[in-house]
């Protein structure tokens, strides 16, 4: 009786470990579903939107200017931020606020990217904490899942 | 004939079953728990690689101990390099010793992700005196650490590229595994002349 229960418990544990590892590999090397919060990417991504991010571009170094990426926050490694890539290494970017009269420019250093939110007035991004190292990028957002009243769910690219 | 086909099908089924169990578990273990790597370069002499090119140390890298980004001053850690991947870093890069097939396939052949291995000198909030950095005194910002190689002058570290974000932390080097005569546990050791000038909180 006890041996039966122990056997079942071990089998359950084995399956949990196996599926946990498959999930880790999927999230790390393929992609996953992410829930975004905050107003800094409006109107492209609203608060509480569900998006799908893929990790293949990061591993193959295919992140391009204009991509929306998920990045580990430079000031808090336990949280993620979602911004648009405005400049890659070597690009010239404008570092001043839109309201400033005199514009200042700088070049993005090697191995870094310049991120900005779409909602420039309400976004803390590279204009605040500087260029972000490429190694902090977790994935690139490729799809947004939109629910409409007519269908159960549509995928909006 | 039918029996041989049945046996072949059973073997294929067993192979795929083993494959889908072994590969994800191994990849997850190497990514999240621990892995092994060879240290190249002279930037951590004399702690690592005292013999230079003839004998590279092999270290055990522990991912699990830094899962909450809990590092102490004096720890030897490995970081994802924050400089260009097209530039070959001449000091203290290291290569993977164990390479699972999946990992190998997913690494870009042109630009393998560079990792550097250095010692943590200061944590966030500490004010330290730098050696050759653009500013003489630096207060380490929130969420960042200051790393240096033990061999000052031969090390590409925070004195060149500034404070490093904690998100780039890869693993903590806990033991030297090879060569056998250098088998030891790496203790966190902060050189007394590199202590921070003012600590925010203990």
Task: Describe the structure concisely for a colleague.
The complex is a heterodimer of chains A (157) and B (202). Chain A is built from three helices and ten strands; from the N terminus they run αββαβββββαβββ.
Structural topology:
The complex is a heterodimer of chains A (157) and B (202).
Chain A: H1 2-30, E1 31-36, E2 49-54, H2 56-59, E3 68-72, E4 80-87, E5 92-94, E6 105-107, E7 112-116, H3 126-129, E8 132-133, E9 137-146, E10 154-156
Antiparallel strand pairs in A: 1-2, 2-9, 3-4, 3-9, 4-7, 5-6, 7-8, 9-10
Chain B: H1 2-32, E1 34-39, E2 58-62, E3 76-80, E4 94-96, H2 101-106, E5 115-122, E6 127-129, E7 137-139, E8 144-148, H3 158-161, E9 164-165, E10 169-178, E11 184-185
Antiparallel strand pairs in B: 1-2, 1-4, 2-10, 3-5, 3-10, 5-8, 6-7, 8-9, 10-11
Describe the 3D structure:
Chain A: Its main location: mitochondrion. Chain A: One of its GO terms (molecular function) is serine-type endopeptidase activity. Chain A: It is found in: Mitochondrion inner membrane. The complex is a heterodimer of chains A (157) and B (202). With 157 residues, chain A is of the alpha+beta class. Chain A has helices at 2-30, 56-59, 126-129; strands at residues 31-36, 49-54, 68-72, 80-87, 92-94, 105-107, 112-116, 132-133, 137-146, 154-156. Chain A has a single domain, classed as Umud Fragment, subunit A (Ribbon). Chain A has 3 helices and 10 strands, in the order αββαβββββαβββ. In chain A, strands 1, 2, 3, 4, 7, 8, 9 and 10 form an 8-stranded antiparallel beta sheet that branches. A two-stranded antiparallel sheet of chain A has the order 5-6. With 202 residues, chain B is α+β, with helices and mostly antiparallel strands. Chain B is elongated. Chain B has 3 helices and 11 strands. In chain B, strands 1, 2, 3, 4, 5, 8, 9, 10 and 11 form a 9-stranded antiparallel beta sheet that branches. Chain B has a two-stranded antiparallel sheet with strand order 6-7. Chain B has helices at 2-32, 101-106, 158-161, and strands spanning 34-39, 58-62, 76-80, 94-96, 115-122, 127-129, 137-139, 144-148, 164-165, 169-178, 184-185. In chain B, β10 (169-178) and β11 (184-185) form a beta hairpin. At the A-B interface, α1 of A face α1 of B.
